[in-house]
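Hi R.,

Quick one: here's the Transposase sequence you asked about.
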Amino acid sequence: MEWSGGPGVGDRHPIGYPVRDKKREEKHRNAFLPQPQKPFSLSKETGMSVKTSKPPKSSPEFLLLVRIGVDLSKDTFHVVGLDEKGHRVFRKKFTRESFKTWLGRPELPRMTVAMEPCGGAQWWGSYCQAQGHVPMLIPPHQVKPFAMSQKNDFNEAEAICEASLRPRTTKVPVKTPQQQDLAMVLAARSGIIKERTALA
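And here's the predicted structure, written out as tokens:
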């Protein structure tokens, strides 16, 4: 009998030995091995929704703040914050209203708020005191030595923060509303005296 050449059941080699089908033998052998089990899903088996706990979030960076430097401007405030070791841990831009809300957050730690004494700095100083913070007004000439070569708002805020760390830095006192009103009256009086002297 001639050999057809195709392996199958009962096929034999021309000499008389059975032809081996390796794929069929492997399939037969694997049938007796333990099969991997699918992971059990309670939601699929019972139809119940299962809530998994999320990993805890790390603490917000503003909780480490002990001191911030604020570059005040008309519409946006740039803030840089330091931790107790003097490392920068916070850097953010605020609008006027969002900065006011942020300073009033109850979870915000009590800290030093350093600013340059511009037009609205006295009001912000009083507001910081009302929220439990410690305002510090630093004259621009005291901040200039700490300014970086590349001037921008965040670098200015960081320079204010650095200047507030120096014990010899001169501070401008925060005035009460009554003191601010008196200062306006004195400034107006001084202007009138200058005009009268010029006309005499």
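The CA atoms of residues 185 and 191 lie 10 Å apart.

Cheers,
M.
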